Amino acid sequence: xxxxxxxxxxxxxxxxxxxxxxDSGIVGYRLMLMAGAAIAASVLRHYGxxxxxxxLCGPGNNGGDGYVAAKMLQTSGxxxxxxSLGDPVKLAGDAACARxxxxxxxxxxxxxxxxxxxxxxxxxxxxxxxxxxxGVAVRVIExxxxxxxxxxxxxxxxxxxxxxxxVRGTALRASRTVTFAAPKPGHFLLxxxxxxxxxxxxxxxxxxxxxxxxxxxxxxxxxxxxxDALPRLAAxxxxxxxxxxxxxxxxxxxxxxxRLAAIAGLRVGAGLVTVLSPAxxxxxxxxxxxxxxxxxxxxxxxLDGLLEDMRFNSFVLGPGFGVGEKARDFAERILGAGRxxxxxxxxxxxxAGYHDQLAEAAAKQDAILFITPHQGEFARLFPxxxxxxxxxxxxxxxxxxxxxxxxxxxxxxxxxVADPSGRAAICxxxxxxxxxxxxxxxxxGLLGGLAAQGMPGFEAACAxxxxxxxAANRAGARLIAEDLANNLPAFSEFQEY
Length: 497
Ligand SMILES: NC(=O)C1=CN([C@@H]2O[C@H](COP(=O)(O)OP(=O)(O)OC[C@H]3O[C@@H](n4cnc5c(N)ncnc54)[C@H](OP(=O)(O)O)[C@@H]3O)[C@@H](O)[C@H]2O)[C@@H](O)CC1
Ligand SMILES: [K+]
Known about the structure:
Blueprint: H1 11-23, H2 28-47, E1 52-57, H3 61-75, E2 80-84, H4 93-102, E3 106-108, E4 118-123, H5 136-147, E5 151-154, E6 176-180, H6 192-196, E7 198-202, H7 208-214, E8 218-220, E9 244-248, H8 256-267, E10 272-277, H9 282-286, E11 293-296, H10 300-307, E12 312-317, H11 325-336, E13 340-343, H12 345-350, H13 355-362, E14 368-371, H14 375-381, H15 383-387, H16 393-404, E15 406-410, E16 416-418, E17 424-426, H17 439-452, H18 457-475, H19 481-486
Helix pairs in contact: 1-7, 2-3, 2-4, 3-4, 8-17, 10-11, 11-13, 17-18
The protein binds ligand NPW and potassium ion (K).
Potassium ion is lined by residues 62, 122-126, 153-156, 158.
């Protein structure tokens, strides 16, 4: 069974999706009934033997979901109590219908105290959170977090921005989050992912055509997004049809990073991989290389000579390379010769303050530039984008991709890939133990190896990030970077996902 692409939609786009569904004849309150039912079902499934449920209801439609869930749980025989933030008489529209259908006592949120054995439904704020949480809501959120009782969040843990995954003042820490129709960026971007607990995506009867009409080129990074673009071996494939990856080594004492990248590039399928080493580091590299070849590249003239061989079609520059003019010069020569370049680590830092020069080089015909910054490198290369904290990691990566004509792999436990056209994907499969020395070098090699095989840029970057996480999961918690390449899955395993 081949599963479909998984779109991720912003809260604003979700509002448009709701309106499309309602305009097509679906009754708005019906959506709220379905949303409340999904929350109630989750409570019964996971906490059915709790002593009771306390439903914390906000002043908007998120609160409405809470009243619906409370009614359904009460009808199922569970003891339910509703607490309102503000005067429930002021509720309007569907939320007012839900309050009336609840029809039982509504207590003030001021009077709520967490109670052992009971479950909390968090229906204070969802997609409509526009500003920092304040007042009694802060006190209650902090009390619930401190009490450590099960919390089921309606749509989003209250206080979490569905757009950016950031906390607005304070936020509840949920055990489970039930969202509706499609996940939001805040469910995957950190710290949001940690605050959501287990994420459930409930079908509330919104037709998929309404979701598809409003998706804005953002997906969860999963194999359906790129598996059809993976390199495929044909009976007549030979090593040169599988591409030739060149990985630049640093000096005598900085050679390991390049070898990690080179091994990953070979393991992911590049036909040939050559470590491009300064003469001073040849002995160190030669002592450790077998299948991977070695060639001396000291200066620009050596590199120009190598670039005359069109079979060298992809390069990794940066791991252990050193920061400075030489890295900039090499990157510009490679892009100028119309090759794929993965600019990583020192390669990225070398362009801090020279960002326009990089964009100019990336615009050269046939050049494909990948930039793979972690947070610190991103801030060095794109200080203005990074300092705009109101924009999500997705939006920041998109801006960086547009500005540099590059495919940006903005790394972290929530790696975001973005391309200049605005397509973007969020990765959620990286285990915490992937944060280890040499992990980034391996990712750069995977990407260089896929690019060498001619995989289109956006898909190659998404595949590299996902494979990197998958290999780490397979290797387990004692992972060191050397293990990653040996734990890559065969492509055939998920081509039929
Ligand atoms: N649309 C649909 O069809 C469906 C929608 N569904 C549900 O609706 C939810 C979205 O509902 P929503 O748009 O009413 O927003 P919601 O999250 O309830 O918050 C808005 C209220 O909170 C207030 N408020 C905001 N920030 C605040 C703060 N910091 N501190 C204090 N107050 C603050 C804000 O006040 P205002 O800013 O207007 O003064 C307003 O009163 C969505 O997440 C999902 O659960 C489902 O039923 C499925 C069908
Ligand atoms: K909520």
